[in-house]
Amino acid sequence: MGPSRSDLDNEQVHRIRVLGTGAADVTKQLGVECTVVRRAVGVHRITFTKTPGTFVMIGGYMFSATTAADVKGQTLTASDYTKATATAHGFIDISIWSSTFAADDLQATEHLDLSLVFRA
Hints:
By secondary structure, this protein is an all-beta fold. The chain has one domain (11-119). It has strands at residues 11-19, 27-30, 34-40, 43-48, 54-65, 75-78, 91-97, 110-119. The protein has a 4-stranded antiparallel beta sheet, with no helix packed on it. The protein has a 4-stranded antiparallel beta sheet with strand order 3-4-7-6, with no helix packed on it. The radius of gyration is 15 Å and the shape is globular. The chain starts with 10 loop residues before the first strand and ends with a strand.
């Protein structure tokens, strides 16, 4: 497999995988230099402990579950990225919505895979 190619110079993709826990902090299974904390029903803050660069976009996301139909129709929205300051780390808030457009927590059999794109 050759090097990753992109039309963005110095692109860095941060891949994060979380496992649901219901009404508690999700379990981060993949993702470096970041934390994921539940803030409200369906709302999670991803905070980067090191500045990953300039935020470009969410590169993609996918819900999965032991029973795929359990995540049918779920969607994700996000806040604008908040840049790090001298006293606080940078972060982005994500919101998970059910197929009926209600805020939704991931259950213990459900995952979210998320790619965040930055430019170094």
